[in-house]
Write a structure and sequence with these properties.
This protein is α/β, with parallel strands linked by helices and 322 residues long. It contains eleven helices and 15 strands. A hairpin with a 2-residue loop joins strand 12 and strand 13. Helix 1 packs parallel to helix 2 and helix 3 crosses helix 11. The longest helix is centred in the C-terminal third of the chain and has 25 residues. It starts with a strand and ends with a helix.
Amino acid sequence: MKQYISVDIGGTKCAVSLWRDSNSANPPDMLKKNRFATLPTPEATIALLVSHAKELAEGQQIDAVGISCGGPLNSKKGLLLCPPNLPGWIDIDIVTPFREAIGAPAFLQNDANACALAEWLWGAAKGCQNVVFLTFGTGMGGGLILDGKLYCGTSDMGGEVGHMRVADDGPVGFGKRGSFEGFCSGGGMARLAGERMPDWLRAGKTTVLKDTEITAKSISEAADSGDAFALSVIQECGEKLGLGISNIIDIINPEIVVIGSIYGREPRFAPIVEQVVAREAIPFSWEVCRIVCAGLGESVGDFAAVAAAKYGQEQAKSAVHS
């Protein structure tokens, strides 16, 4: 039986949790979770994170601490370099404070990589050797498990699929018009609808959507009521999602592509994506690949940091014995 502390750092909220892992095939059990709004400075936020971690660890034997955060970051040095959703967090050593406070090794991972680990250890990709995980939430991030190991790339930038261009023009995502994230993310869907709506209205068509209140959720709700404009946005987003996944399948040749967040909430995406991939991807690669929703569902983010702790500890032990 092992126990872990997980630390999830986001632009608007943070969470620290205590987990117990029986080391069985089942996911670990969350014993307690503390959440709070991200504070204005890194110093204040880290101090509160460490305080919560110490509270949860009191009287417990903690085997490792896992930290999940958006990049760019340096997982080997434990540094947050300059995450765009955390202004002012520049070259922050996030690992040392937890290692010293808890007295256990601490491991940092990009949030998409950590989610990939969670799905590989306990979710839809369990037992697979070559896995692609796509966040498809506020943004579009990717995590890669290749030949049974997490692939981070040369500078922890492996899997940044959101920057890939899937159209000559389109909504801005990841700082680029027409990017994968520009079309296929919560913010991207809203921007796509906002850009398409004026032409739709000028053509004399109507929609229940209001241009000041567009979100991925409101688009899906409008589509549920049969709104033709909302359905057209989902169709276009789904086609770009299929195109992006086709490129990834051609390059990576994975067994499985696991998609989180919005993909699981919007069932209309799956048939659109599969139709595009069947048309665009190399047949030999597509016939050995599945595209599925995250097996851990909406909880994949909760499991991400504890997966980073478990994987980091196992990799550290392997390095000692090799």
